[in-house]
Amino acid sequence: MTLARIAGELGVSAMTVSNAYNRPDRLSGALRERIFETADRLGYNGPDPVGRSLRRQRTDVVGVLYSNPLSYAFDDPAAVSFLRGLSSVTEGADLGLLLVPAASGASGGRDPRAAAQAAVDGFVVYSMSDEEPLLTAALGRGLPTVVVDQPARQGVPFVGVDDEGAASEAAGHLLELGHEGFGVVSFALSPDGREGIADPGRQEGAAFQVSRSRLRGYRSAVEAAGLPWSGVSVFECPGSAATLGHRAAGALLSSKRRPTAILSTSDQLALGVLAAAEELGLSVPEDLSVVGFDDVSPGAVPPLTTVRQDHEEKGSLAGRMLVSLLRGEDVPEPRRLPTRLVVRGSTAPPRWPVPAS
Amino acid sequence: MTLARIAGELGVSAMTVSNAYNRPDRLSGALRERIFETADRLGYNGPDPVGRSLRRQRTDVVGVLYSNPLSYAFDDPAAVSFLRGLSSVTEGADLGLLLVPAASGASGGRDPRAAAQAAVDGFVVYSMSDEEPLLTAALGRGLPTVVVDQPARQGVPFVGVDDEGAASEAAGHLLELGHEGFGVVSFALSPDGREGIADPGRQEGAAFQVSRSRLRGYRSAVEAAGLPWSGVSVFECPGSAATLGHRAAGALLSSKRRPTAILSTSDQLALGVLAAAEELGLSVPEDLSVVGFDDVSPGAVPPLTTVRQDHEEKGSLAGRMLVSLLRGEDVPEPRRLPTRLVVRGSTAPPRWPVPAS
DNA sequence: CTACACTACTTTATCGTTAAATAAGCGGTT
DNA sequence: AACCGCTTATTTAACGATAAAGTAGTGTAG
């Protein structure tokens, strides 16, 4: 069933039927009624969305690009909050939200064709590595695009936080408490799935801007306190799950110079660190201080000291920016949303000053 | 930039350019290379998704219809798990997932036009009321559709659980413990936003099949134990948030015949009940037993006795069914997924037998 | 030397819609 | 009878792509 068939049935032009649906005020009430009635009778459900999109050159859909398999997003509380904020804005603007499927290639990267095949008016790109081909493909489409968290690119509207500053503040907190022996548990520095200690080269060369920034923040605070960064082991996990943090902490805590404090680049990892500590008979915060990032784990025991950021607001801001772009309005300067260090029960002064060697 | 322009530039037919992208084996490697190179040079990103969908009569997108504003879905752990399961299957089949925006009308129902406007190959409908116009509109499209949780409709592929049986089991557990005074905290019976005690008429007339079934399950167990259902107050909340459960429990627990046990149709509501009990100085489970539904609140204190169901599997099954339908394969009989009563710390025998009056 | 399969590409027609321009008719005025 | 502004409906021409059928040209077998 198509517009034309309905039109034929009634002896009117297709345009008139189209108008019945799109500009009801442009035809007489009587005719409009007859059209809807005929449509009903013949089982026509209104203009076909695809034909309509082709002609109007817009889809009223926003695409979401995620660097991992889609289903991981629903496992990550930060991503879920982000989507909540984003969806509330897009729905308010009567836009659909398309979760773009991108099969993962062998390299860990995602199939860039996904971005080319998505019938959307614009993209929201969530947390990708610097040179992700999927991102390049999306930007290549020339559609309005907002990047969230990473990578910040010249000329591309961006939403994120000051990761370096926040990380520095987190490390500063531990330093103030008197800690001198640190370990870092980080999520991926690059999307190659590596797991293990990351040397400074790998740290600086990280393909994930957020990882790079947070490590830099930790480092600058540590060095500002006169301590050598070389004394800090950075354990890289290939993702951000508690089990990965658990393994990482296991490695760090069994090294010969055991840290008295562990900085984690996510709460999920920090949760794993807590579990590892418990397993090793270390009590937190007495024997070990732990700091998370994101503030998405309200139920942790002990409650996590962490860097709070408003993920929902991030989604909502990204949504508002994209909606403005779609409407052809100007978009305000890239803004960094605020973060706040929330001190809870997982950090305390070290039991003793760290011995000199 | 279009196929035709690239074709013109090279002096070949549009079809050949199309084939370069869709059936690379149908043209010589040399020409293919020239085409890609020209496309690159002119900034062509491959076939336009909308034109392509129009011609092929498919979009490779699955629409998700939700009975509440979309952003609520990301607040509901059951819905999030469901989406995780669903998205893993759709992504595996290289299908996009379109979260369909449906502005809420005054009646609380959602704008049915949303279903007509969505450019999708099929729908997954998540937990809707019996006569929701949005659902009718979706089914009217004649696209492959799978309904999840409710409403089960003759001839429409369905995924859900045996709510009545599970609820009956939950109530049975309390009866076995010796409880005789019950209260029920239920999420919406009908989408009209009512809050307060629901009489048996409203219970039976509920527009949400799941609500109806769970209440029936509670009731059948209570009556099977020889107790009158009229003695059980059912407090209806307009949604499923902890704050609503809190208010509901406040009302039930301050009535003159205070229940010794409260059955909640969701964990979220049960969490509110726990909060209300604490506020009133009642300890759980000593003074009050509480049972949830869904098993999505691992962190509750005390840990909730609840009905466990596998939301992720539900999403994944719905996805598999829809994918089969899209491929024109047969879909197995509507199946009810299993549930299991998980007894934890929120239920115990009543402190004393309920006094006769 | 015809027949036939095969490759590499083209032609034609169509998917379902809507923007923009155009026309026809209205009662009334000049 | 020409022209008004206004409403209502029509005509025309894309929007960007691909299915299906068709046409050369080439090699290969009988």
Structural class given helices, strands, pairing of chain A?
alpha/beta
Shape of chain A: elongated
Mean pLDDT of chain A: 94
**How would you name the CATH homologous superfamily of the largest domain in chain A?**
Response regulator
Poorly predicted runs of chain A are none
Which fold does the CATH topology of the largest domain in chain A refer to? Rossmann fold
Explained architecture:
Two copies of one chain form a homodimer. In chain A, 42% of the residues lie in helices and 15% in strands. Chain A is α/β, with parallel strands linked by helices and 357 residues long. In chain A, helix 8 links the parallel strand 3 and strand 4. The radius of gyration of chain A is 26 Å and the shape is elongated. The N and C termini of chain A lie far apart (81 Å). The mean pLDDT of chain A is 94. Chains A and B meet through helix 4, helix 5, helix 6, strand 2 and helix 7 of A and helix 4, helix 5, helix 6, strand 2 and helix 7 of B. Strand 2 of chain A pairs antiparallel with strand 2 of chain B, so a sheet runs across the interface. The first copy, chain A, binds a DNA duplex (30 and 30 nucleotides) through helix 2 and helix 4.
Layout of strands and helices, then pairs:
Two copies of one chain form a homodimer.
Chain A: H1 3-10, H2 14-22, H3 29-42, H4 49-56, E1 61-66, H5 70-73, H6 77-92, E2 96-99, H7 113-117, E3 122-126, H8 133-140, E4 145-148, E5 158-161, H9 163-177, E6 182-186, E7 196-197, H10 200-204, H11 209-224, E8 233-236, H12 242-253, E9 261-264, H13 267-279, E10 289-291, E11 306-309, H14 311-326, E12 335-337, E13 339-342
Helix pairs in contact in A: 1-2, 1-3, 6-14, 9-11, 12-13
Chain A binds a DNA duplex (30 and 30 nucleotides) through helix 2 and helix 4.
